[in-house]
Amino acid sequence: MADTEFVIEPGRQDLIMIRAFDAPPDVVFRVITDPELIPRWWGPSFLSTRVDRMEVTPGGRWRLVNVDAQGREYFFSGVYHAVVPPSRYVRTWEFEGAPEEVALETVTLTADGGGTRYVAQSVHPSVESRDAIVRADGPRGGRESMDRLAALVADL
């Protein structure tokens, strides 16, 4: 399975996650935007995911909930600003426990041979807020999500 690459440059507000998938962009786009499929890949494997809302249209809202083994819930939400199937979406991304730390995420899917190059760039309000995500092991959760996404895409 391909590795997930992270670009985390000192002094910058963005975090970039890159992954290759063995499926065309339309399949990957469907999986990353289908509320029925999101719980099968989103978040680290030690948490379950529930979709509270998923309106993948410009101005549409989304809200996902991660639940740990003790039943504690962690809420993530935002608004879609642009949706261009099957190649791109732009949305805000917020951990509801830190509402002042809203990031702008752009996911771009590009055909690459018979597969897809996935690039997610998250721009955070400050270098400090981006670095807090890195210190909280955000890349680990992203890597696990991408591994689970790759397995799901392969099954389809």
Automatic annotation (TrEMBL):
User: What InterPro entries has UniProt attached to this entry?
Assistant: ASHA1/2-like_C, START-like_dom_sf
Q: Give any Pfam family that matches.
A: AHSA1
What range(s) does the Activator of Hsp90 ATPase homologue 1/2-like C-terminal domain occupy?
Answer: 22-153
Q: Which domain of life is it from?
A: Bacteria
State the similarity comment. Belongs to the AHA1 family.
Q: State the name under which the record lists this protein.
A: SRPBCC domain-containing protein
Taxonomic classification, please? Bacteria, Bacillati, Actinomycetota, Actinomycetes, Streptosporangiales
